[in-house]
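help with this.
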Amino acid sequence: MDLALRRVYDPAGPDDGLRVLVDRLWPRGLSKARAGVGEWLREAAPSAPLRQWFGHDPARWAEFRRRYEAELGAQPAAAAVARLRVLAARGRVTLLYAAKDEAHNNARALWEFLLAEG
């Protein structure tokens, strides 16, 4: 599975492949043309209550990942995960996120989940 991570605010690179936004909300101040998003999978994002509970607090990272992985196994997130697997089987997929913290965000957790699952 060929997956990459990138902030949606970063310019598209030649090696990005299909750019897939995996946030529930559209990034502030970013036009759709500038974002270069090929697909937006809102369903792959954590639920609003989980996102609000996490609040990008690194101290909650391990518990956030555990809860998020549980959500990824249930519908509609499971369908979005299946879609990402299909897309990644066809070629490179770059998961896009808006968070400033590159180490503690839902796209990184999703990326790690997908790579662990194979």
